Description:
Layout: E1 3-5, E2 11-15, H1 18-21, H2 34-39, H3 57-71, E3 75-79, H4 82-85, H5 95-110, E4 114-120, H6 126-130, H7 138-154, E5 160-165, H8 167-175, H9 187-211, E6 216-222, E7 225-228, H10 233-256, H11 261-269, H12 279-285, E8 291-295, E9 299-304, E10 311-313, H13 331-342, E11 349-353, E12 358-359, H14 371-389, E13 394-400, E14 414-415, E15 419-421, E16 428-430, H15 432-443, E17 445-447
Parallel strand pairs: 2-3, 2-13, 3-4, 4-5, 5-6, 6-8, 7-9, 8-11, 11-13
Antiparallel strand pairs: 1-17, 9-10, 12-14, 15-16
This protein binds beta-D-fucopyranose.
Amino acid sequence: MPTYRFPEGFIWGCATASYQIEGSPLADGAGESIWHRFSHTPGKIKTGETGDIACDHYNRYQEDIGLMRWLGLKAYRFSIAWPRLFPTDERTLNPRGLAFYDRLVDGLLAAGIEPFVTLYHWDLPVWAEDRGGWPARECAQWFASYASTVFERLGDRVKHWITLNEPWVSAYLGYYTGVHAPGRQSLQDAVSASYNLLLAHGLAVQRFRQSGRPGEIGITLNMSHAVPASDKEEDKAAARLFDGYLNRWFLEPVVRGAFPADLVAAFRQAGLKLGPMSAEDMQLIGAPIDFLGLNYYSISTIAAAPGFPGFRQAPPPDRVLNTMGWEMEPEGLYQLLLRLHREYGLRKIYITENGYPLREKEFGGPDLEDEPRIHYIREHLLRAWRAIQEGVPLRGYFVWSLMDNFEWAEGYEPRFGIIYVDYRTLERKPKRSAHWYREVIAANAIEA
Ligand code: FCB
């Protein structure tokens, strides 16, 4: 069996997010988040579930750190719930909310695990939403002052920062389709939100540099490799547009300091008002980052379609779809990594999420024997390995997710964890994939 060895010091990790695992959303003086409110609104979550208990990580974080240590993780990516720190407004810090992350960070460091902290993984405080939310420009300033506080309080120990997780999802699912919190349905709001999220990112990077704290900061984008459904010119143009809408709209302002011209034109043609794009804003948004976080799950086969946005997903008949309906094709990861390196010249990339969902009912019991997940992760890691051989500066990989958790509008049904969570007893059990990942980490290599 050939062995695919990863570079020395490659960072093996797992990822989670606050609202998806913590539970106790209002404990110790925390304020409501838009996800708390949304999941408590009837009809919003397919299964009617909420994050009230989730994995109870808020109380069981020590046990979870123990599991991470058993896995041999080098790093753990988690997010901070902004409304725990600022429950009522942008000025009043709740020290008890911050104390939870103090304990978590100290516990991780004591276990020899590097914290990778995401500042925003979708749980906006409701006070911010009620004052306009992401479509309001001031939201970027509120975020920046929250970020400053975190740098000041945790920056003595945390050395890796991610400003935002998947701003495309925050903007479009939150404000356009309304499938995610806060559930608004306005394309204009979504486009405004996308701009202000990018501005928030830029301001946070600026605050981090000003803080003088050592360490690195970047952003996590959800990207897909777009392929046209046919050789027809219209499908090729649609795939390019989709790539602009999902990938380039967020990537290019951050790494090139400019929004992609084709998308600017398409949005204007659709009658949308775009942010000022002033030289000052663009300088902030485009300030150098230390790394790009890439969340990669699937490839996207795209065909032309009438009306806005002008494209639709059209998977070929032989394409395997996962339980979320996503197109499985690991080669897309390889293509995307090469492109990020060659076209955008990125200096450092982490895969901050990649993973595979399974539904318990497909197994009639706990899916501890999760071979399809191992297959998925292995195939993607092999593509990552190949990209590294070609010079792509990929420095780490984080499995989504450490454990089963609240999968947003889908509730708890799709399970992404390599550790199983029994939601009745909250007991954790490593799945086959956890044992496998543990061996990969120990060997710093894959045998395939
Ligand atoms: C990503 C999210 C993460 C999780 C995975 C499955 O879009 O960042 O929270 O829900 O998808």
